[in-house]
Amino acid sequence: MRIGGVNIETPLALAPMAGVTDLAFRTICRELGAGYTVTEMASAKALCYQGKKTLPLLKLGDGEQPAAIQLFGCEEDCMEKGAAIAAEYSGCDVIDINMGCPVPKVCNNGEGSGLARDPEKAAKVAAAVIRGAGGKPVTAKIRLGWDKGHLNYLELGKRLQDAGVAAVTLHARTRVQMYSGMADWNAIRQLKESLSIPVIANGDVFSPKDAADILKRTGADMVMVGRGAFGNPWLFAQCAAALKGEPIPERPPLARRCQTAERQIRLAAEHKGEHIACLEARKHYAWYLKGIPYAGYYKEKIARVETLEQVSEITKGICRDLMDPED
User: Fold this and answer.
1) Is there a contact between 138 and 129 (Cβ–Cβ < 8 Å)?
2) Is there a single domain that holds both residue 222 and residue 300?
3) DSSP secondary structure code for residue 173 in this structure
4) Of the candidates 244, 263, 293, which is a domain's last residue?
5) What is the pLDDT of residues 121-175, one digit of tens each?
6) How many domains does the chain have?
7) Full-model pTM
8) Which of 48, 92, 101, 278 is catalytic?
9) Is 29 annotated as catalytic?
């Protein structure tokens, strides 16, 4: 697949997710088969006003390419300037525009899904980002529409294509659905058939079979994995095997999964400091333990973790107490 002039070898992307897809998690997912990664969304307005907390969101890892940074905002001037700043600072290959975030504090300001309510304005914002991107391809991530009574994804996709966007990702839910209900894969197929630019499919990919099915049923050029990767970055290697028709590898034993969780937290500490990394570890490590019998005791300990030493002790305890005899 190509996005503009950017070649992507593996049609598996890690979705941008606020508070989740930081540099540490993206590094793990790249190592395990993700062919394309996108940063957490960053505020274009904060970049324009030199927000100190925003620039670190745009930092890419060594060898993290091809990769995109994601911007959100609704003011054309600010989006253009923010794109220029982000492109220069990050060295990214692609700039993605968030037109799908359903969180009220974002979309009620006319950003994220709020921006997509006005396809004409959304196209103008896209054109502004393209001007600021310095020749880098620009993409957009959208939803079906605001609610079932206002499904405008076909119109929005066409306007974005006409504005010069190089690819569109469709999360096949409405803003009102948030993350509930089932994604409408038929809508992805309809969007793919209506556009000449690449379309990336997003929504309800939780297994290798899902990845193969969504590409087959929609004709999309790439599949973007979101919540399915929570605590399971091995999903990318499994999906890659499914797409090739090869035997699907098993997830590694619990000990290695916990060691990967700890490594992710330590990588985060290198970039954010121990305190922030440990606060965020409370959700990340718990995801790695999803479905593990009798893990409640350690989940409670994870919910109170404050130091990397405590993280290490938890890993040792899990490996000692919860290991399957066959592992």
Assistant:
1) yes
2) no
3) S
4) 244
5) 999 999 999 999 999 999 999 999 999 999 999 999 999 999 999 999 999 999 9
6) 2
7) 0.95
8) 101
9) no
